[in-house]
Amino acid sequence: MKILLTGAAGQLGSELLPILSRRGSVLATDRTVPVPETPDWLKLDVCDGSALEQALSHFNPDLIVNTAAYTAVDQAESEPETAFKVNAELPERLATWAKSNNSRLIHYSTDYIFDGEAEKPYLESDAPHPLSVYGESKLEGERGITATACEHVTLRTSWVYSSHGKNFVLTMLDLARKGLSLKIVDDQQGCPTWARSLALASEAVVISWQESGVENRQGIFHYCDDLTLSWYGFAHEIFRCALAAGMLDAMPEICLLYTSDAADEGVEVEW
Hints:
alpha/beta; seven-stranded parallel beta sheet; globular; single chain; two-stranded parallel sheet
């Protein structure tokens, strides 16, 4: 099987690359090229429609795994065109190609397509109601894929982190090492999800398709790790584990905030 992976240098793409390589021949693509350069890696701006079409036509993948995304939640409010170009137009373009070329697609979405008002875990059947440009752009990407009727799985996930890239875990550790007093939101809850867990869930999709076919094994699914925390609770766990591993010398001072207080103080509310 030939697999085209977008966003291969990102935190999820980096975890997926070795895992997908167990399942087929992978062409990794990203805006950057790793140092040292590796074979089967293509520098590609996925927003360049002609370059993307050329890569797809040349490699002719059996499976496209799209991890490329605009993930700057707050910044999307001032850059809606860019957010929609990456999060909505790109997945629809990939799905259209997949439909026309008998290929399959795995794509990733987010809990930000919901408004967070539910007092229970969201189901795939729950009505979306995004409150941000980021959430709207990701929802539009989902709908674009569905409209093409290509064979696909979209995995909605939450609070992804890994050992590299930009994520909450690394940001908290960096701030703690600088000795800063931290104010963290405590009334927003979610399920922190390790990028490798999400990558292994993606591999399970591929294995299921290879062994049993796509029928009744496609559409939108929710996947996250199984621990529910607030941002404050997540930060506390990060520091507890870092102390135990010798990555920090002392527990930093953490003050909890509520979302309304964070907004008033100009603090990024997703923290």
